[in-house]
Structure formats: C-alpha cells, structure tokens
Design a protein that fits this description.
There is one protein chain. This protein is α+β, with helices and mostly antiparallel strands and 547 residues long. The strands form 5 sheets. Strands 1, 2, 4, 5, 10, 11, 15, 16 and 17 form a 9-stranded antiparallel β-sheet that branches. Strands 18, 20, 23, 25 and 26 form a 5-stranded antiparallel β-sheet that branches. The longest helix has 13 residues.
C-alpha cells in the first residue's frame, strides 16, 4: 500500500540509483519549439446566437484560427442559464411565512456535461459522422466514475453533500421556498462551466493542430431533462446566517423532515409545506408533505467557448504535417441507449432484447423509478441478479446489489480501485440499504444514493488505450436480465416506488459504452464509429468484421 501511494504521489522518482537521478536532471529543461505566444481566446456561439431557448440548435467553436496548437485539456465552455417559469406545487401559502429565508431548495445539474442533449462534431462546415443523441446519459455515466477530488469543483459538479449543506460548490442555484409559495412562475439563473474533456468524445484529446485542421466546432442542443432539485437542510442555512452572516435569529429550528437525495426535475419530494414562527413565543410550527418543482424551459443568455493555445515554429509544423499525412489515431468512447421491453413485476424481472455489440467496454444497467428519470438512479435492492449476453453469464454467478462483493466489482469496473477515491454518493448507492434488517422499508435515506449504475465490465482494465472489448462479430445477440427483490411485497422499494404501492417503475435500461477512435488528417477529422485501427491487434483474428 505504501508503495502504490508513493508512486501515485510521485515520491519514488529519486530512490534507487541516485547517480541516475542526477543524470536525468540534465534533461529536465526541454527544448522549446513555441513562439512565446500562449493566449486565451474566447468566442461566443453562432448560427443561433444568445439569448435563445434550450430547444434551439446552436454552434460553438472548439478551436481558434489564432492558435497553431490548441490545448483541449484546458478548454471549457461557460453558459449562463435562466430557468424560466419555475413553479413549486404543494406549499400551503396560507400557513407559510419564512421571513429569514431558512427554507431553501436547490435547482441545477449534478454534472455540467449533462446539460447537452445532443452533440454533433463538425469540421470546416461539414459533419464528420459523430452524432450523440444521448449526451445527458453519457455525461451522467462518465461523471459517475470520477473520483472525489474531481467532483468538488464549483460550476461543474454538484455533490449532494455540498448541496444539502448549503455550500457554494455547486452547479446550480439555491432558492427560497417563501418566494414560490404563491404557486406562480418565477425565474432562476446560474452559471455553468463544461470542460472540453468532460465530453466522452474528447476524454483522450490533448494538443490539437489548429494550423492544419481549422474550424472545429460542436453543434449542440441543451435540455432541462438532466436537471435535478432537492430541499436542503434548513439547519445548514440557519448556521450560515447566524454564524457567517451574523444575522440575529431569536428562535431555534426544530427537526424538519425532507427528502435526503436528489430528485429528477418535475418529480416529487418530501419537504416543508407549512412554516411559521409565533412572534410572541418564538415557537416554530412546520409540516412536511409532498412538493413538486416544475421546470420545462431554459433561456441561454450567454454561451462562450474559452480556448487556450499557442504558436509553434515552422520546423515543428512541417514535422506535424508529415504525421498528419499518415493519420494520427486518438481513442474515444461512445455511449448508446436501449430499454428492455418488460418492467419489473411482483416477483422480480426477467426480460431480454437483442443487440449487436462491437468493441463494447461495459454495459451499464440502470433501474429508473419514473419515466423521466435520467440522472437520478437508485438501487433496485435485488438479489439473484444476472446479465446474460449470448447465453453467457456476466459475471459468472448471480449477485446481490447490496454489500461488499457488489461494491468492489463496481469500484474496479469504474477504475476507482487505485489511488483515486470514489465519492460518498458512489459508495452509498451500492451499500446504503433501503430497508431495515427485518425488511421494513425506510421512508427516507441518510444520504443521497441516486448514482446507482450497475457496470458490467466487458474489457480488462489497463493504464493505456487498447481495443479489447466484447465483440459479437456482427451478430445480433440476446441480452437477458433476471433478478428478484431482496424484500417482497410492500417492502419492495423498486416495484412499489411509493409507500402506497400506486406507482411502479418503467422497464430497466442498458447503456452500452464502446471504444471508437478519431483520425486526425491533414485538413480534416474522421470519427470511426465502428471498427478499429489495423495495427490494434497482435492477432488479426481478434479484429471485428468490417461493416
């Protein structure tokens, strides 16, 4: 453990042969082929210029002609969003007075890369064949495998532990229930940053040769579907106001019941529907019940691309041009979506579909509880869970979705078994039970557990990029899902979404992630949605058939 930690922190480079260490010091300073011209360039969206509504397509640049080389790993988008006509349904206005604004909620994205619904890649005014229409799901799945440190950056991610504690480290905004008690529409607004390499297509993209491949841009649609909301802890607001802002509040808050997890937009949570303070006794009266936040329209008032880059000398341009004539392959990935035809029943799930799998690194199985759930997924609390692909079990034996074995498999499948620490949300999704030890269903959770994705690993882990995913060789194979609830009847929290057993879930879904690759050519880009580079396999028999 100490060895791996030291390697991760870079503390072992100088141990061993000290003389070799000093020899390497002579090459620490590298030769420079730059022209001392590093700069940031900011461009705004075009074709559909801001302001515009989210259901309109717009174009945004990824590269600038003022740079010879772009640094994709540093570039990012900034978007200013106004959520239009937001309403809360369920507050009893006659019994709700919160003059100190202690009762608040949150609206925003868990991950900023879930703001895009559709992404197309264009070069020099033409499409290069990449069209991702499941960008919300892709962004959620990609972000769910990130480590704790990367998930805390403001304007990019919203960890529930930050949101519920009223921290500013969120990708969204807080609002006062008191402002929404009239039931009328109100506007909310916030800023969003989306790093270029937070898009799965560009996860391996680093330096890009603008001088040889100009005018690279995205055509995108934004959408409200990935938005989440939740009530936040009133005590955290109270502590912030009295301690940090030094407001004088003459009463203390009682325990106030609220849902302790993210809720998909337009869905219902438990939160305060009545709140008041007696002026004579300072006694707080409150009542919690069902409340729904409704938001169906976004207005984009600013959409900017921040591109950093620099110039290089002619010698380096000539050398890069020679490489581009041969073609430079960059690995990428693509997520596709399909839904099983059958939903769960009283006794569990048994359903199947057929699909062609090529270079598939993993299949993610998710269990939405509502038809609009897309970035809020919970543990189905199942046992005897099995995925069969072409009559082969993955993994080799049935699993329970709760406990040590399942958690460790998910940690490994997400490449979080090294020095990168998974988030609390990730761990809780696989370990936080929705029932007591006797099977009685809980009506709430201690912490958010809505990042449940069952990642069925189909490709070995490794430190490099290679094509070793599942290959059906052009055949349309059967994918079957089976499983049973750990607890039956009213205590089956997946089949009986609500305590009264009136709401049942839609069918489970599979999100398949496959390896693709991008070829950089002189003056153009080619995105290969199928196949793999000719040199990618030592044994050519392992290559997939040409489509």
């Amino acid at each position: 453990m100490q060895n791996s930690n030291s390697n991760a922190k870079g503390e072992r480079r100088h141990q061993g042969e000290i003389a070799e260490y000093f020899k390497k010091m002579r090459t620490t300073i590298e030769r420079n082929d730059g022209t001392r011209s590093f700069e940031w360039i900011t461009d705004t969206c075009h074709d559909q210029q801001a302001p515009f509504d989210h259901n309109k397509e717009t174009r945004i640049a990824l590269t600038s002609t003022q740079h010879d080389i772009s640094d994709f790993s540093k570039g990012f988008f900034t978007i200013h969003v106004i959520a239009k006509d937001v309403r809360i349904v369920g507050i009893n206005a006659a019994n709700f007075t919160d003059s100190y604004h202690l009762i608040k909620g949150f609206l925003g994205w868990r991950d900023s890369n879930s703001a895009f619904r559709q992404i197309q890649l264009w070069v020099n005014g033409h499409s290069v064949g990449y069209n991702q229409q499941e960008a919300i799901r892709e962004g959620f799945a990609y972000s769910s495998t990130k480590g704790q440190e990367e998930m805390t950056q403001r304007f990019i991610h919203s960890l529930y532990e930050k949101v519920v504690s009223y921290s500013p480290q969120v990708c969204g905004t807080f609002f006062n229930f008191d402002d929404f008690k009239d039931g009328l529409p109100h506007d909310l607004e916030w800023d969003v940053n989306i790093p270029f390499d937070d898009l799965l297509l560009f996860q391996a993209m680093d330096l890009f040769p603008n001088f040889a491949i100009p005018n690279v841009e995205l055509r995108v649609y934004l959408d409200t579907a990935g938005l989440v909301w939740c009530p936040i802890n009133p005590q955290s607001v109270y502590d912030t106001k009295t301690f940090l802002e030094e407001e004088k509040i003459d009463f203390t808050l009682p325990n106030i019941s609220f849902t302790h997890q993210f809720i998909q937009i337009n869905n219902t949570a438990i939160g305060p529907i009545e709140f008041s303070v007696d002026e004579d006794t300072n006694e707080v009266s409150n009542l919690s019940g069902e409340i729904t936040l409704i938001c169906n329209m976004l207005r984009i008032t600013d959409f900017s691309s921040h591109m950093c880059g620099f110039g290089i000398c002619e010698q380096s341009k000539n050398e890069i041009t020679q490489e581009l004539l041969k073609g430079i392959d960059i690995p990428a990935q693509y997520l596709s979506f399909d839904s099983f035809p059958d939903a769960a029943g009283l006794n569990g799930i048994q359903t199947s579909l057929r699909s062609t799998l090529s270079n598939t690194t993993n299949i993610s199985v998710v269990f939405p509880r509502h038809a609009n759930d897309i970035t809020v997924m919970q543990n189905p609390m199942y046992q005897n869970l099995q995925l069969r692909i072409d009559n082969k079990n993955f993994p080799d034996r049935a699993l329970s979705t709760l406990g040590a074995e399942f958690l460790q498999m998910q940690v490994i499948a997400s490449d979080l078994d090294g020095p990168i620490q998974c988030t609390q949300e990730f761990e809780d999704a696989y370990t936080q039970s929705k029932n007591s030890t006797t099977g009685k269903r809980y009506n709430n959770t201690l912490r958010d557990d809505t990042r449940f994705i069952w990642n069925v690993q189909l490709e070995r882990n490794g430190g490099g990029y290679f094509f070793d995913g599942y290959e059906s060789k052009g055949r349309n194979v059967a994918i079957e899902l089976v499983g049973n609830p750990i607890y039956q009847g009213a205590n089956d929290t997946y089949y009986n979404v609500d305590k009264g057993g009136k709401t049942h879930p839609p069918p489970p879904q599979i999100w398949s992630c496959k390896d693709i690759y991008i070829t950089l050519c002189l003056g153009d880009i080619k995105v290969h949605m199928n196949g793999e580079p000719e040199y990618s396999q030592i044994d050519s028999r392992n290559r997939p058939p040409e489509l």
